[in-house]
Specification:
mainly alpha, single chain
Length: about 80
């Protein structure tokens, strides 16, 4: 396949819908997981134990950052559909 652009383009066109569907499913799954790890769910679970979990604010900020990235990815994928 090295240098065979026509064959590569054919494969891209042939399998793009399946690839897109799998990527969308994966991003949706990760978005749901991040929602489960969101600030509100952690606060409900650990509201009395915040002193025992001093890195919780850092973890929540990281999860929010990652969720923001995946929201952009999800928008890009939705634009390809």
């Amino acid at each position: 396949m090295n240098g065979d652009e026509a064959t590569k383009q054919y494969y891209h066109e042939q399998y793009f819908p399946q690839t897109l569907a799998v990527l969308q499913k994966h991003v949706d799954y990760l978005m749901n997981e991040l929602e489960d790890l969101s600030d509100s769910s952690w606060r409900k679970t650990f509201r009395k134990d915040q002193d025992r979990h001093p890195r919780l604010p850092l973890l929540l900020r990281h999860n929010n950052f990652v969720r923001g990235i995946f929201e952009l990815v999800q928008q890009n994928l939705d634009g390809m559909a």
